[in-house]
Amino acid sequence: QEIRKVVQVLEQTAREILTLLQGVHQGAGFQDIPKKCQKAREHFSAVRTQMESLKTKFPADQYYRFHEHWRFVLQRLVFLAAFVVYLESEALVTREAVAEILGIEADRERGFHLDIEDYLSGVLTLASELARLAVNSVTAGDYSRPLRISTFINELDSGFRLLNLKNDSLRKRYDGLKYDVKKIEEVVYDLSIRGLNKETTAAAGAEK
């Protein structure tokens, strides 16, 4: 019961961060990305406090006994942290960095930690969000972003191909990555047909 109460508060905070970050998909949201990321990071300080509370609700050596209670919200928070880091630097967040953002451990031996499968699930959710961002970037007139997203997602896909995924739910989520790759490729192809990616490539070259 105590665990459930803290998890509900974490879910509410996660919803607030998600609502904030969804704004980047709106046309005007592209100018506001740094501000939205900064606000999201402020919300993560609440997440860290809530995580501290959660850690006190069960014996440290019984993490996996109660794991199901917070597994979903933890995956959601991993995705949100990964999305913030991507929007800030267009890089993939490491498991260690996510654990730090959430105020938990990366190593299992050190107590309440970020399970590797929860991290991977969150990263796969990021891929779907970026596929959506690629489409909305075009609508907002940002033609270079889909090309960068495409490169990032292809590298992500290559990384996942190296893994031997035994977990069924993770395996299913990974199958969805193929559709995200395809969706982004279609956006990039559409830009090249219209000759729009040549303009962005030329502009990027001129800047260098």
Automatic annotation (TrEMBL):
UniProt name for this protein: Translin
InterPro entries in UniProt: Translin, Translin_C, Translin_fam, Translin_N, Translin_sf
Role according to the record: Exhibits both single-stranded and double-stranded endoribonuclease activity. May act as an activator of RNA-induced silencing complex (RISC) by facilitating endonucleolytic cleavage of the siRNA passenger strand.
Family listed: Belongs to the translin family.
Superkingdom of origin: Eukaryota
GO biological process: RNA metabolic process
Subcellular location: Cytoplasm; Nucleus
Complex and partners: Ring-shaped heterooctamer of six TSN and two TSNAX subunits, DNA/RNA binding occurs inside the ring.
Keywords carried by this UniProt record: Cytoplasm, DNA-binding, Endonuclease, Hydrolase, Magnesium, Metal-binding, Nuclease, Nucleus, RNA-binding
Record GO terms (molecular function): endonuclease activity; hydrolase activity; metal ion binding; RNA binding; sequence-specific DNA binding; single-stranded DNA binding
Binding site for Mg(2+): E129
Taxonomic lineage from the root: Eukaryota, Metazoa, Chordata, Craniata, Vertebrata
Species of provenance: Semnornis frantzii
GO cellular component terms attached to this protein's record: cytoplasm; nucleus
Gene3D superfamilies in UniProt: Translin, domain 1, Translin, domain 2
